[in-house]
Inverse folding.
């Protein structure tokens, strides 16, 4: 990706909006959801309650929009974020990953005095704690036994599509799922083995 470029929602690109990210995006490290209980008497350290999850992370952006359509393009950018659900966002500073973001702040639009066709949008996005490998790696398995390796250091939520017919046993870590009957294809949810869709 070129410096300053981004893709929002897999469809809206910085080139289409005549826009560029001006700052190197500041991305917070997600905070682990934990509670420290310091009230018990006679214990010389806090008792830790770990929720086993993470809070969202913040992404601070300054985006410059150029041209006569700058105001309209800012509205297009904001309208994609204002859907009430997380939107995929990929940016030049981390081109191998996609973040799932929502708009967290009102944002500020500034117009420098030297140009009537240029605007700067300062905005804070809230991103889900995990970033996703992009583009995703696709593996085609044609042997009886194969091993797929998670390319990250975190628990993964793989998208698995099985094409074929007959009985198939899929084992992920120690969980096995038996798929029987004639299937054209089946998509499994994360690592749980629950069918999401089939044909």
């Amino acid at each position: 990706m070129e410096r300053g470029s981004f893709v929002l929602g897999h469809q809206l690109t910085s080139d289409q909006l005549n826009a560029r990210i001006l700052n190197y995006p500041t991305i917070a490290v997600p905070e682990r959801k934990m509670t420290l209980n310091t009230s018990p008497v006679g214990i010389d350290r806090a008792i830790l309650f770990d929720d086993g999850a993470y809070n969202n992370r913040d992404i601070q952006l300054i985006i410059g929009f150029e041209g006569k359509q700058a105001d309209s393009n800012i509205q297009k950018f904001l309208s994609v974020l204002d859907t009430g659900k997380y939107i995929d966002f990929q940016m030049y500073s981390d081109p191998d990953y996609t973040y799932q973001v929502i708009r967290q702040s009102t944002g500020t639009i500034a117009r420098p005095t030297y140009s009537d066709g240029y605007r700067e949008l300062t905005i804070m996005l809230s991103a889900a704690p995990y970033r996703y490998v992009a583009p995703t790696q696709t593996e085609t398995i044609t042997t009886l036994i194969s091993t797929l390796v998670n390319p990250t250091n975190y628990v993964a939520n793989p998208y698995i599509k099985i094409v074929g017919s007959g009985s198939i046993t899929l084992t992920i870590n120690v969980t096995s799922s038996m798929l029987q009957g004639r299937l054209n294809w089946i998509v499994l949810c994360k690592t749980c083995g629950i069918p999401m869709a089939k044909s």
